[in-house]
Amino acid sequence: MDSADDPPTSTLAFLFQAEFASEEQQQKGFIDWEWLGENFTEDVVPAFLQHIYLCAVALAIALAISLPLGILAARYRGLYGPFTAITGFFYTIPSFAMFIFLLAIGFSVGVTPAIIALVLYSLLILIRNVVTGLDSVPPETKDAARGMGLTDRQILWRVELPLALPVIVAGMRIAVVTVIGIAVIASYIGGGGLGTLIFSGITRNFPTLYVTGAVLATLLAISADLLFVRTERLLSPWAHRTRGAR
Amino acid sequence: MDRILDVFQRRDFIANFIIHIELSVLATLFGLVIAMLVAILVNRSDTASTIAINIGNIGRAVPSLCILVLMLPIAGLGFDNALFALTLLAISPILINAVVGLRQVNAQIIDAARGMGLSGRQILSGIQLPIAAPIIFAGIRTSAVQVVASATLATFIGGGGLGDYIVEGFQRGDIYISLAGALAVAFLAIITEVGFGTLQRTFTPKGLRLAQARARAK
Amino acid sequence: MIEFKGVSKTYPGMDTPVVRDLSFTIEDGEICVLVGPSGCGKTTSMRMINRLIEPTEGEILIDGQDNTSMSGTQLRRKIGYAIQQTGLFPHRTIADNIGTVPGLLGWDKARIASRADELLDLVGLAPDQYRDRYPAELSGGQQQRVGVARALAADPPVMLMDEPFGAVDPITRDRLQNEFLHIQEDIKKTIVFVTHDIDEGIKMGDKIAILKEGGILAQYDTPENILVKPASEFVQSFVGGDRVLKRLSLTRVGDVDLEPANGNGNALPRINAEWTLRDALSEIIGAGADRGLVVTDGESNGGSRGAITLDSIRKISHGAVVPRG
């Protein structure tokens, strides 16, 4: 924490220099539909898209890290403990505090610390589910594959990962929902996205703005949750087509 | 470092630290009571349980800042309203785990208990709750850690707590004030996580720990 | 005594009953086996006795008293209950598991503890070694013993057992069955025993009730009569083509009139008097002989009690019923 010679705090107040038009201050009802109509494509849609972009990038990076680490930990059991201890530590740090720590160690306000934080939060969930997923592959199945002459690499790609996929996707579901929620807070340090509407709305006491931001973020999180539930089912038809009602 | 310690020594810091703890403890406690009541209420019905789990899942998906912010127009600013929003937040993880935990108790164990003449209430308190205890505690732990973290955001709706310092630091352009708040809240979160982890192990009946160990060995 | 009087059960939303107009009587101190293919309503019938399931029609009397004359929970505390997979409570010690019903009945702690020890002894588990263990620390067979002990805890006159030995390997099952029959000689409970395995039924039952799909009583009789005089084609096929052999397994060599073992007995196969006729038959045929020398344990040479011939076994398999030893 010695790197804070030049704390990047001078740029932090950028949020409060509202970028939004300010003539709406005299409220027209609780939700100012007129304002919303006029500024929807200009302010709301970009924030929404940016939010999705931020989360997608973070998740892709997190997955690229977690998959190899998870496969490694499933092979070499001794790694699982340290991996979950370290990522579990990140996961426990409240996100608002995490952003401050990232700034304190020298990152400047913007998308980078936001994405780093989002990745750090996803690691525990994803690694855990990769390992659980690989563990759930019955040893008989792997044995049969070996008996049919598949190489270790072929077994991993053709047998283990496909069978583990539903569990991995279940992890992605939790990660996505977590990331969407934390990305809202990341707006505070310049991550952009729907949180910008919320913080801006709060500072200027303009409910239309923060309600819009909060409602959209909520809808986004719930839709992502439902989407991944569906995907999870699609990916494991065998689990839902066993005999009878079960 | 000194500048962080200076913040810790401010008179209002202790007050806000206590407010943060108060918010977290009360919200988790209220959340626990509500979640357990609902879980016990839906325990007997498949349909009600499924509905409860789905509501819980949706509740978990809602970003914490959004819950706080959406409460703003309804409840306004202040401690009570932050507490209300955090309580809502605390319910879902406990609810999901409690419903799932109570229902995943092996059907044959319940059948044996009924067959020996235990009443519904005796089965719930003597069989289902102890067997589900570890899962319920895991839910409480998730809830508590999440509430401690989200209580930092209470500052945005005038609820006070350690989030005040993070925001103050931003507003005054002094990262050390933010850092003091962040360190304190991270400390609280880790204490909560570790503390509940210990509680969870304590509340796992010995027979269940043995059963888990045996299942893992297979 | 348990009496079924015109008992039927139709589940809500189903057209056909799972149990149809069931009437029969189970005598005191007898093991009555309910057996049949899956979907025959055997478990449903058993569960109606302690009202885990309520009948739609008819009544069930226990010692002349309608089983609806008290609350379901009170009734169940007076009836032993043992099931497959045991349903032992994983979070309670073995002694606490056994003490469940006595505890509900308000026995004092010392009495519950001594009863648990007594029962552990009875089912062949050393109390000192097992009372403070948890179910997860026991093998499948040991868990089933505890399941039986738990059902016996409050010394109920009636016991319901639903495939109580179903979840163990055949060798363990055979041993548990023998031990239980041995225990039953002393305790003389009235037992309703559900199984899908006719061999287990023949072995365990004083009476067998064979049910067929739709919950209809196909035959209710002693194992011998069911084997010798199956009431219908259904019973005959359910009992199996080897019912003659099964019948032989009901009789011990020592209970049969033997022929004098004259001549040179040395070449003859040795038949233990404790064996069943089925075992004897197998041994004699396997040795290529037409008779075997019957001996008792510990006197494999000399001291012979006589000989048993293929002819006599054949006669028994067709002839009159030999009372069970």
**Structural class given helices, strands, pairing of chain B?**
mainly alpha
Radius of gyration of chain A: 22 Å
Number of strands of chain A: 0
| Largest binding interface between chains | A-B, 45 and 40 residues
The name CATH uses for the topology of chain B is MetI-like fold
Radius of gyration of chain B: 20 Å
**Uncertain residue segments of chain B:** none
Estimate the helix proportion of chain B, in percent.
Answer: over 70%
Question: What is the count of distinct domains of chain B?
Answer: 1
Strand content of chain B: under 5%
Count of helical regions of chain A? 9
CATH class of chain A: Mainly Alpha
Number of helix segments of chain B? 10
Shape of chain A: elongated
How far apart are the first and last residues' alpha carbons of chain A, in Å?
Answer: 55 Å
Sum up the structure in keywords:
heterotrimer; A: 246 residues; mainly alpha; MetI-like fold; 72% helix; elongated; disordered C terminus; C: 325 residues; alpha/beta; 4-stranded antiparallel beta sheet; globular
Report on this structure.
The complex is a heterotrimer of chains A (246), B (218) and C (325). Chain A has 246 residues and is mainly α. Chain A has one domain: MetI-like fold (Orthogonal Bundle). Chain A contains nine helices and no strands. Helices cover 84% and strands 0% of the residues of chain B. Chain B is mainly α and 218 residues long. In chain B, helix 1 crosses helix 9 and helix 2 runs parallel beside helix 5. Chain B contains ten helices and no strands. With 325 residues, chain C is of the alpha/beta class. The longest helix of chain C has 18 residues. Chain C is globular. The C terminus of chain C is likely disordered. Chains B and C meet through helix 6, helix 7 and helix 10 of B and helix 2 and helix 4 of C. Chain A: It comes from uncultured Rubrobacteraceae bacterium.
